[in-house]
Amino acid sequence: MSDVERLLKQAAMQIGAGGSAGFVEVCIMHPLDLVKTRFQLQSSSSALKNSDPHYYNGIVDCMKKMYKYEGLTSFWKGILPPILAETPKRAVKFATFEQYKRFFMFGSSTPTPLTFSLAGLGAGITEAILVNPFEVVKVTLQSNKSLATQVPSTWSVTRQIVRENGLGSKGLNKGLTATMARNGIFNMVYFGFYHSVKGYIPEYEDPLLEFSRKIAIGFTSGVLGSCVNIPFDVAKSRIQGPQPSPGIVKYNSTVGTINLVYREEGFRALYKGLLPKVLRLGPGGAIMLVVYDYVYNFLENKFQDKTQ
């Protein structure tokens, strides 16, 4: 097999494994992503707490009110954009991570923790550029508190955004820098921690113990990444979600939004939605990396069988 054929085979396996990992993760964890977005869009105004029946005091309270006012299917509002985006998004993330890893070896034969972190940063920024339009549509759908049966379709929301604001920084690419910062920082920590720690903890011959080892490292990677990048996630939700006053853009730039939220609502507001985010991306991070590893190994064995 030539070098070109070998690289193409590896890329195909990375894309297949990454896409599978993303699809499985989003189908399982989407309700918690929705709860996280609702918290991040929610203002800390005391008047709002007393007057808005949709004000959420915690994860359980949020889920109860969503079920009461919007129905059971509301927990999967906005799932179509991530389903459409997650397979190519994760495929791109894992495939570009491997390419960036080669670039950031800096002539060394062995990757270092810095190599993994910089490759993760590059992969996160790359996937953010591709997925941001889907994120804009998803946040718009998730912010709608009507009954699930009354929420407009994904396609109608997309058409409305394009018709009213176009494809640029006020339309489908609104909040791009916030998405790049969020995804870049998360993946820098996520991949950097996972691959560095995985190399120090010995593998187990027992399949169950080895599975548990990967789950534990993946879970910790997802939690750490979530804790580090959440201020940028809050900024992204505020920029891409509905503005407090219709027709007036309050949240615009990433740094400006973070500063504004800090001044008006305090430091804790920058960590809104952290618990549902951790509950989603802790297990989600574990699911994604473990599914990727097992699917990649499965495809690798299949390719080897066919070439023998």
From TrEMBL:
Subcellular location: Mitochondrion inner membrane
Superkingdom, taxonomy of origin: Eukaryota
Matches recorded under InterPro entries: MCP_dom_sf (IPR023395), MCP_transmembrane (IPR018108), Mito_2-oxodicarb_carrier (IPR051752)
Membrane topology: Multi-pass membrane protein
CC terms in the record's Gene Ontology section: mitochondrial inner membrane
Keywords: Membrane, Mitochondrion, Mitochondrion inner membrane, Repeat, Transmembrane, Transmembrane helix, Transport
Catalytic activity annotation: citrate(in) + 2-oxoglutarate(out) = citrate(out) + 2-oxoglutarate(in); heptanedioate(in) + 2-oxoglutarate(out) = heptanedioate(out) + 2-oxoglutarate(in); 2-oxoheptanedioate(in) + 2-oxoglutarate(out) = 2-oxoheptanedioate(out) + 2-oxoglutarate(in); L-2-aminoadipate(in) + 2-oxoglutarate(out) = L-2-aminoadipate(out) + 2-oxoglutarate(in)
First and last residues of every Solcar repeat: 9-103, 111-200, 209-298
Pfam families (alphabetical): Mito_carr (PF00153)
Function: Transports dicarboxylates across the inner membranes of mitochondria by a counter-exchange mechanism. Can transport 2-oxoadipate (2-oxohexanedioate), 2-oxoglutarate, adipate (hexanedioate), glutarate, and to a lesser extent, pimelate (heptanedioate), 2-oxopimelate (2-oxoheptanedioate), 2-aminoadipate (2-aminohexanedioate), oxaloacetate, and citrate.
Family: Belongs to the mitochondrial carrier (TC 2.A.29) family.
Protein name, as recorded: Mitochondrial 2-oxodicarboxylate carrier
Organism expressing this protein natively: Papilio xuthus (Asian swallowtail butterfly)
